[in-house]
Design brief:
Shape: globular
Number of helices: 17
CATH topology of the largest domain: Rossmann fold
Radius of gyration: 24 Å
CATH class of the largest domain: Alpha Beta
Mean pLDDT: 87
CATH superfamily of the largest domain: P-loop containing nucleotide triphosphate hydrolases
Largest sheet: 6 strands, mixed
Bound molecules: adenosine-5'-triphosphate, magnesium ion
Length: about 525
């Protein structure tokens, strides 16, 4: 296989049921270059990369490698040309080990599979990039960051000279993102080329050499990242000025909705990861939990929403004890949940959009007529939801998996918020959303608060926390390091508390190593 020096996509067109996902797109990458691919949710980024990776055939247009036209009619052909892709939603098989997953995608597998050689190359890539991956672990045992490293190794083992990364950092912690960028820089030095899709403009600015921006399926510009700032990138992407403006009026909180008392929860590995947490969330309040992923916030949220057993302590909603009740029962008590892994747990991909729009709510009176579902009302509700939350879709009669990643997110967020829950639990609600949708969503959370809802927001994004929350708890190693009011002067030091420093004046830490 000859090394890829340049890759061009020329006049690419692709439509789905009348939707022009790609409308005459041109782009070029060269060896040693990181190209950012930017655009709103539904702009056509994933479609374009799926064409390059042989998952879709373009309606028209061509792909050239080192100046020669090539045909890519399957992922195998793409891999043979030295192209590798890490998808927006991971595609690893959860019950298989790392080595099995990588072997499954191995393009040049001979009759007798070279187990030993495969293991060696996994270990050597793992060492080269400090990935620290155990080839014999099952995928379900790995964190999102680790799974992503497996996907990258999988592409590299196949000899990819061009690596396509579709929103690779949306599931990574800030620390993992930093490590990941070092890896990308190393690859760039090695002469690899990379196409990176991200909605995080800071990241694009930091790591990309150039950007290509799509809007509604068309290229609206190419630019050198050096000459752009966040604001001009955003303007190019959505065609208007984005001014994040939020009016979080002061509001006095009302009745208590959520009451968590001395709760302990075990993690997947069987030992406690939430170690005696207590707090309350009130009506007209947004309560934030800030923390680096992996410090127990996920398990805490799962315990509150009925997805995980509580081993000690009590949880109450509106004075009703819901400790260790079923998710359905908790939902009926007035709790909605926007889960972190929304695509995996928040929708049924093969169901129609209008079916997903009322998932878990179908038994409500307004959606049923005696024993039957009231499809008229369900569809009307879905149309309203789509309009309110600006979900881009040609119709509500399509399978949900055909929506773009960000639009699936918007559908789930809309569904949970529209239910007007007493308590809305939102985990990383703006992951994968473009700047416009992020602004909209944050305003929706404020609206829920103004209407008298209680909101529990879990986020790593400190801007989000500062903009929205009335009180913030910082979680570290399964404990709250403190709960701060939004006007507390220590709020600026939350970043340090997230790393385990408890009292900023004395420097006392959660454990002695700090
Ligand atoms: N298999 C499909 N069937 C029907 N429509 C599709 C299919 N795949 C994509 N689309 C449509 O094509 C458009 C572009 O989607 P695409 O997934 O490429 O967007 P994207 O830029 O990756 O967005 P996001 O940032 O939300 O991931 C969307 O309107 C989407 O609904
Ligand atoms: Mg996408």
């Amino acid at each position: 296989m000859k090394k890829i020096e340049t890759l061009e996509m020329i006049n690419i067109y692709k439509s789905f049921q009348g939707v022009r996902a790609n409308d005459n797109i041109n782009l070029k990458v060269s060896s040693g270059e990181i190209l950012g691919l930017l655009g709103e949710n539904g702009a056509g980024k994933t479609t374009l990369m799926n064409i390059l990776y042989g998952i879709y055939q373009p309606d028209a247009g061509e792909i050239r490698v080192n100046g020669h036209r090539i045909s890519i009619d399957s992922p195998k052909a793409s891999i043979d040309h030295g192209i590798g892709m890490v998808h927006q939603h991971f595609m690893l098989i959860q019950n298989h080990t790392v080595i099995e997953n990588i072997a499954l995608g191995y393009a040049r597998a001979p009759m007798l599979f070279p187990q030993k050689k495969m293991r060696q190359s996994i270990v050597s890539f793992s060492e080269k990039f400090n990935f620290n991956i155990d080839p014999d672990k099952k995928v379900w045992q790995l964190s999102a960051g680790e799974q992503q490293r497996v996907e990258i190794i999988k592409a590299l083992v196949n000899g990819a000279g061009l690596l396509i990364l579709d929103e690779p950092t949306s599931v990574l912690t800030p620390q993992e993102t930093r490590d990941f960028f070092h890896v990308l820089e190393k690859m760039r030095k090695d002469g690899q080329m990379i196409i990176l899709i991200s909605h995080k403009l800071d990241e694009i600015k930091k790591i990309c050499d150039r950007v290509t921006v799509l809007r509604k399926g068309r290229v609206v510009g190419h630019a050198c990242t050096e000459q752009m700032d966040k604001r001009s990138l955003a303007r190019m992407m959505i065609g208007r000025e984005v001014i994040f403006s939020f009016s979080r009026e002061k509001m006095s909180r009302k009745e208590k909705v959520l009451d968590v008392v001395d709760v302990e929860v075990d993690g997947d590995k069987g030992y406690p990861v939430v170690n005696g947490i207590s707090f309350e969330v009130y009506r007209n309040e947004i309560f934030g939990i800030a923390g680096v992923a992996g410090n127990g916030q996920r398990e805490l949220v799962e315990a509150i929403t009925g997805l995980r057993m509580v081993t000690h302590g009590r949880i109450r909603i509106n004075d009703i004890d819901i400790t260790n009740q079923s998710p359905r029962k908790i939902h009926n008590t007035g709790v909605s949940h926007v889960p972190e892994e929304r695509i995996r747990f928040g929708i049924a991909p093969n169901l129609f959009l209008y079916e997903n729009a009322i998932l878990k709510q179908h038994h409500q009176k307004k959606f049923s007529r005696r024993a039957f579902l009231a499809y008229g009302r369900i569809k009307a509700h879905t149309r309203q939801l789509i309009k309110d939350f600006q979900v881009a879709t040609p119709s509500i009669n399509i399978q949900t998996k055909n929506l773009s990643g960000g639009n699936i997110q918007k559908l789930i967020l809309g569904r949970e918020i529209a239910d007007k829950p007493d308590l809305l639990v939102a985990s990383h609600p703006t992951y994968g959303l473009d700047v416009g949708a992020t602004e909209y969503l944050r305003n929706q959370l404020l609206k829920r608060r103004a209407e008298g809802g209680a909101v529990l927001l879990v986020s790593e994004d400190l801007d989000e926390i500062f903009e929205l929350c009335d009180r913030v708890a910082v979680i570290f190693q399964g404990k709250f390091m403190g709960i701060l009011e939004s006007d507390d002067s220590r709020i600026a030091d939350i970043g340090l508390m997230m790393a385990g420093t408890k009292d900023l004046r004395t420097g006392e830490g959660a454990d002695d190593s700090f």
